[in-house]
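Reopening: FMN-binding negative transcriptional regulator still failing for me.
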Amino acid sequence: MHIPKYFAEHDQAEILRFIAAHAFGTLVTVDAGVPCASHIPFLLEQGETLTLSGHLAKANPQWQHLAANPQVLAMFQGAHAYVSPTWYEGTGVPTWNYTAVHVYGTVRVIHDTAWLKAQVERLSHYYEGDTPNAWIPAYPDKMLEAIVGFEITIESLQAKYKLSQNRSAADQHNVMRALEASSSENERGVAALMAQRL
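Support: Ran it again with your exact input. Result attached.
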């Protein structure tokens, strides 16, 4: 990801918070020179090493890419919004403000039933929460044969928070106010991020 210095986020705690908050990401692999992507929920594990875990349907051939080439990319995207040059005091061009994190790492494919069961249970608990009627996985282990697990050991994190930091303070405030007035939740989300950083 191209990250001009204005937009680089280096705070690892913030980057990990971002991944956890936007954990439905994109898993990217390459097979015979052709890129492939799946959109899936991930679980971030912060033990001795940082890892991302997840699973794919066994019918999805991407798991075979993981087995053949263990270098992978996982991408996570947050709030984003169009920025009009009419919001600037000076000249400018249309652009897009956004937040994104790229994770590079080495993956291992997992077929172990106990691991798959634990991963699905952790994933379900994470998204179901502690609500009184939270769904608890209860199905035959045979069903787990329809999925393939994976765990990515994180080797590199890249984070880009493009929030008009390369513009004057006046322009940043104008962009923020315009986005705050929007009916779009995404655009208001960008405005909130800008407010935190101004």
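The two ends are 24 Å apart (CA to CA). If you still see a failure, please send the error message rather than a screenshot.
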